[in-house]
Amino acid sequence: xxxxxxxxxxxxxxxxxxxxxxxxxxxxxxxxxxxxxxxxxxxxxxxxxxxxxxxxxxxxxxxxxxxxxxxxxxxxxxxxxxxxxxxxxxxxxxxxxxxxxxxxxxxxxxxxxxxxxxxxxxxxxxxxxxxxxxxxxxxxxxxxxxxxxxxxxxxxxxxxxxxxxxxxxxxxxxxxxxxxxxxxxxxxxxxxxxxxxxxxxxxxxxxxxx
Length: 210
Known about the structure:
With about 210 residues, the chain is an alpha+beta fold. The protein has a domain at about 85-205. About 25% of the residues lie in helices and about 15% in strands. A 5-stranded antiparallel sheet has the order 5-2-4-3-7. It has a two-stranded antiparallel sheet with strand order 1-6. A hairpin with a 7-residue loop joins β3 (about 130-135) and β4 (about 140-145). It is globular, with a radius of gyration of 42 Å. It starts with about 35 loop residues before the first helix and ends with a helix.
């Protein structure tokens, strides 16, 4: 016969110990528990609440100061022209090199320097002067931007010292990379109109001595 197996000893579990009850309780100690994040952040929450009650100055929005580039290096009243500005502010067809494509309702009237100043003054007196620029780079004259308004003239029909630049010409505009060009009469975003080609030709004729 097989002897019966002896019973296995059962593990002895020690009774949990609780801290002595505080005075004024019914003798039932509080169950111990691990502190949570809210308890650790109690002081921070109290400080945040105090900052909320301290006044509106702690929550006042301060506008971010955005520095303006190159503003101090420019004369007063002059803009920092760029190819992007010409496209977005004036709607011109300007490539990344800062060159303005002629055509599409715009031509350039190149007037020799000996007549250019008087022509610009005449247009200003008539309140018909549009954008005017000096190309530099050895080019003798100013370019008056104009609207052809379906007027087509051949070179023999032009007054002396005048050349019309249409498609496919490109006119370099003043940009940080095209430092040779400069505006005599800069464009205005609020007045995008251009004088007609006939108006500019008439001004050249009126300003040119006989």
